[in-house]
Design a protein that fits this description.
single chain; 78% helix
């Protein structure tokens, strides 16, 4: 597994290097120089709102009214920092672990899985919104439109399958697998059963909360498209907000295909080059934008790692500790 991850990272870096070489370093740096001081605002402000919205969506799937939104924000920031380098999965167990002093393991794990499903479904809806916004007003290449519609269908099927697997009892399946290895006896087996019950309750008895979580995530994705709009505006590219929204919806949709690649290296860059080119803005500008977004991702990930270090060293409040019972 580690070897495969290293190979994927190496392939991603090679792809980025190839795209940079094909575009030309000077062509790539020209729009980056034009950004200058606005780059700092780009890195901080829009994503701060996006991160808050995604945290708010996550909070909605917890049944505990006392759970602090601020605490969730820091936990999510720390987990997402690890996700950047581990194909979007390494940070999820860390989020659950960091919540253990306040939320039982089964509840935190179920809420995390529901939120992961909701944020993915929100991204699928974002792609659909992008198509609805772009198709009537933008003359896009037919092959590109067909590819985006196909991608939307693939995502719908993938999310539906993910939900079906959860409803079939993912905890019980995991417990049986571990039992064959002699690792799922006693309390651990009861924990998996409790996880399945909590997960089922979320989908059957708290559907309103799951729907609200999905919609807030959708709003977060839409707000994230402000990054595209701001960069285009700073570069004096005349593009309406709807175009920026569609560009980001398509670029984010393509990134979905790179779920197994740490940081979506290569795929993110190539995807935005393709999308910017389809809108007649040039692949070079798409690559420049992606590198600016990479700077934002790295900056926030570094902040997340600092938060992770602080959370790990801070003592848990004894009065708030929760047992599984």
């Amino acid at each position: 597994m580690r070897l495969a991850r290293h190979l994927l990272v190496a392939a991603g870096l090679a792809s980025v290097a190839y795209l940079v070489a094909q575009t030309g370093v000077e062509t790539l740096l020209e729009p980056l120089r034009a950004l200058s001081w606005p780059l700092a605002l780009f890195i901080v402000l829009p994503y701060a709102v996006v991160a808050f919205l995604h945290t708010l969506a996550w909070r909605l799937v917890f049944a505990r009214a006392s759970l602090s939104l601020r605490r969730l924000f820091w936990v999510r920031l720390a987990g997402e920092a690890l996700n950047l380098g581990t194909a979007s999965v390494g940070g999820e167990p860390v989020k659950v672990y960091l919540l253990r002093p306040w939320v039982p393991l089964a509840e935190a794990s179920a809420a995390q899985l529901v939120d992961k499903t909701a944020i993915t479904l929100g991204q699928v809806l974002f792609l659909a919104v992008g198509l609805a916004v772009a198709l009537p007003w933008v003359d896009l290449p037919r092959d590109f439109v067909r590819a985006m519609i196909t991608l939307l269908g693939v995502q719908i099927v993938a999310v539906a399958g993910f939900v079906l697997v959860q409803c079939a009892g993912v905890g019980a399946w995991t417990q049986r697998l571990l039992a064959r290895l002699g690792l799922a006896a006693g309390a651990r087996a009861r924990g998996f059963a409790r996880f399945d019950r909590t997960l089922a309750e979320s989908y059957r008895q708290r559907r309103g909360a799951v729907l609200a979580c999905t919609l807030v995530h959708l709003v977060g994705w839409v707000v994230g498209s402000l990054e595209v709009y701001l960069v285009l505006g700073w570069l004096d590219v005349d593009a309406p907000l709807t175009t920026a929204l569609a560009i980001d919806a398509f670029g984010t949709g393509i990134k979905f295909l790179a779920f197994a690649i740490p940081g979506a290296l290569g795929v993110l860059e190539g995807g935005y080059m393709l999308v910017f080119g389809a809108f007649g803005l040039g692949g070079g500008l798409g690559l420049s934008f992606t590198l600016v977004r990479r700077l934002r991702m790295v900056a926030w990930s570094l902040a997340g790692l600092v938060v992770l270090a602080l959370l790990r060293t801070a003592p848990a409040p004894v009065s708030a500790e929760v047992t599984e019972g």
